[in-house]
Amino acid sequence: MSAQKDISHAAWAQLMLLALIWGGSFVSIRIALDEIGPLTAVAHRVFWAALVLWLVIAIRGLAVPRDRRTWGAFLVMGILNNVLPFGLMAWGQLYIASGLTSILNAATAIFGVLAAAIFFADERMTKRKAIGVSLGFLGVATAIGLENLRNFDLRSAAQLAVIAGTLSYALAGVWARKTLGHLPPQTAAAGMLSAAAAVAVPLAWWLEGPISPQLGVRSIAAIGYYAVFATAGAYLLYYRILAVAGSGNLMLVTLLVAPVAIVLGAALRDETLAAGAYAGFGLLALGLLVLDGRLLARIKWRQAIDRARRQS
Asked: Could you give the number of structural domains in the chain?
């Protein structure tokens, strides 16, 4: 992992805003699931988000790709980064708390490092990365609880579905780097979401019935939030932070999303989590900090200063 950029106060503010937006997406999706199915929730998410992003592209005057190869790449990306993970996590939220979903979602960064090490020669698995990944996997196992795997039920399946979604996110990152790196990020996101909508809308219609616009105000507000703000808006904010703070610093948002989702889940849905979930998040957070590298670098720096003082 490359050296991290220093984060300005403005970038920190944007990072916190992104964490708040994404943290709120978990509880808003769960609210919508009271009235619609998981695939219908995904269909709404990708369809409306794509429309918003194409409007942004039109305003900015960005070119629209027209070749089949790029749209084929969009299709694969839409399935890996949207249809599969969004669908698996939405289904999982029917049986587990929003806060626990957000904790398990933090494994995305762990799987991302592992996938990059497998597929890219310049992302080899160093000792530090191996320690971080190992801590992350231990955190996931702790959050799920081995007893839940021994006594397998819908709750266990839901947690594994969320983990499968994070693995899909990681593979999407590999695919994006290999096929979409030449495109402006806004165009890549809009194309990906459009391809995802082309899959999710008919799939939801087939498996869950016609998509009705006749929903309660609470569900409409929830869909509007997670589609417009937590998907389209979050993508635009994500790329803005990426430009000013770097990809390494964006990993920090993973540590901030889960606490927001836990608090909102408790406040709006009366959700509670077992102690193992918090312990698992602690281990996941430690793994992410090890992967980030700055904590270890600061510890070594302090040790070097202490040695120099003792020798003087």
From this structure: 1
Query: Is 66 buried (19+), middle (13-18) or exposed (0-12) by CB count in 10 A?
Result: exposed
In a domain, residue 3? The reply is: no
- The pTM of the full predicted model, rounded to 2 decimals, is 0.88
Q: How far apart are CA 85 and CA 100, in angstroms?
A: 15
Q: Indicate whether 195 belongs to any domain.
A: yes
| pLDDT tens for the chain, residues 1 to 312 | 444 555 677 878 888 899 999 999 999 999 999 999 999 999 999 999 999 999 999 999 999 999 999 999 999 999 999 999 999 999 999 999 999 999 999 888 888 888 888 888 877 888 888 888 888 888 888 887 766 666 777 888 999 999 999 999 999 999 998 999 889 999 999 999 999 999 999 999 999 999 988 899 999 999 999 999 999 999 999 888 877 766 666 667 877 888 999 999 999 999 988 888 889 889 888 888 887 766 566 666 666 666 666 776
Look up the domain containing 283 and give its range: 9-311
Task: Answer yes or no: is 2 within a domain.
Answer: no
Q: Has residue 4 been placed in a domain?
A: no
